[in-house]
Amino acid sequence: MGDTDDSATVSAEEFARAMAALGGFEPAPAVAVGISGGGDSMALVLLLRHWVAERGGRLLALTVDHGLRPESSDEAAAVGAAMARLGIPHRVLRWDGEKPSAGLQAAARAARHRLLAAACDESGILHLALAHHRDDQAETVLLRLARGSGIDGLAGMAAARADGAVRVIRPLLGFSHDRLLATCRAQGVDWIEDPSNHNPRFARARLRAAVDLLGGEGLDATRLGEVARRAGRARAVLEQATAGLLAEAATIHPEGWITLAPAPLLGAPAEVALRGLAQALTAVGGPAHPVRDEALERLLGALADGQGTTLGGCVVRLRRGAVMVAREPVAAMERLSVPPGGRVLWDGRFDLRVSPRHGKPVTVAALGAAGWREWVARLAPEKAPDLPVPVRETLPSLWSATELLGVPMVGGRYGFDADGQDPMDRAIFRPPSSLGRPAFTVVSDRRGII
User: Fold this and answer.
1) Beta-bridge partners for 404
2) Is 39 annotated as a binding residue?
3) Known binder of ligand: residue 37?
4) Torsion angle (degrees, nearest 10) of CA 227, 230, 236, 237
5) Which of 102, 234, 250, 292 is the most exposed place for a label (fewest CB within 10 A)?
6) pTM over 0.85
7) Between 39-54 and 72-86, two packed helices, what is the crossing angle to 10 degrees?
8) What angle do CA 104, 107, 113 make, to 5 degrees?
């Protein structure tokens, strides 16, 4: 499904084929769409409106107001007015709080995805559509090539991927920016130009300014899309192999740690073993940035020699014949105040709910060595679990000043009281990244990524 005429609109039939290639929709699909008001996202709304209506589904438009420009709130309101004219429900999601001085675009992107995913979850929507297109994909490949990325980076953006409870879909990766603007013009719909798209402060804007030069050397969007398609195909195979390795080797423990059987891990091809280790580290430690390949290679070599280390916020070492991946105690430093009946995500990995029976807010913090000794002394000997030291010290625990109130995961009750009315303290391990996440999905025909 490549572009043959960049002045042509995207037809309903072409778009339906792109959506069918993504698969996985319910009979009456509920879809959310992230809309900035730019031409690409406006075109996606127009195409989705028709596609959803034909199937008896529903569409929700979501706009994130990053608050980075004085006019952003007015622009979000203008998008809402445009959606009202089209008869599409719309919500504005605001990114509150301090904004970083460095890495602003990356932070804004992370905040945008977090807000959009939360809004989908609240609305019971499984699919979040984003308007990245063929030219965005080409820019992504160029940026990652400049940074020395391997297969994963050169695969660009996935057409479909799981993000927690939401599936992120990009049905426009086979269409050019010009065709999307033509689609808006054909339906008499205006759009907002984002000035950051032309701000040389940002790498993507600098690349856009060099498009003609790069295209003259053969690095046009079509060629770069082919690079992404082929790299994505290789990545999909590697991720399938990694999923197979983890299914054989990994055990996830409810206290927030993972063990890996050494034989399949060390017997796997190096690239697959490295990916397996990386996914285990991310699931337990949730590092803000992927662990570098060189560090993973050193870790794999150390494990082969019977040694261990700390990496990605985790302690990794051999324990009782298995590779233990546990949270590093010095990394679990978060302290949160939670009101009675409140719920928080602590340390980025435990879904913790505080019982309403507490008379005042409690502090959630890592148990620590002294806390473990105090808590175990209160239990009957048979109720004290046999846990590794790093796991013990990084368990979520409840405190009132220096008084230890409870450790929801150890020696306590779960669920509700006998009368079924009063929920107890509860903590559930919810890794920031699924250990067995679906393979990277590549959908293509002979002329490019769909």
Assistant:
1) 399
2) yes
3) yes
4) -140
5) 102
6) no
7) 30
8) 140
Distance (Å, whole) CA 327 – CA 319: 15
| Cβ atoms of 23 and 438 closer than 8 Å | no
What are 339-345's contacts with CB under 8 Å, separation 24+? 345/430
Q: Are 324 and 408 in contact (CB under 8 A)?
A: no
- Beta strand pairing status for 396-400 and 362-366? antiparallel
Confirm whether residue 36 is marked as ligand binding. yes
Q: Is 90 helix (H, G, I), strand (E, B) or coil?
A: strand
State the sign of the Cα–Cα–Cα–Cα dihedral 118, 120, 126, 130.
negative
What's the number of CA atoms in the CB half-sphere (13 Å) around residue 418?
0
Per the annotation, does 40 bind a ligand? yes
- 189 CB-contact burial (10 Å; exposed 0-12 / middle 13-18 / buried 19+): middle
C-alpha 76/C-alpha 92 separation (Å) is 7
For the beta carbon of residue 321, count every other beta carbon within 10 angstroms. Answer: 9
Length of the chain: 450
Q: Report pLDDT digits (tens) over 108-139.
A: 887 888 899 989 989 999 999 999 998 888 88
CA gap 241, 334 in Å, rounded: 35
Position of tokens 């006019």? Answer: 71
Give the H or E element holding residue 179: helix 177-186
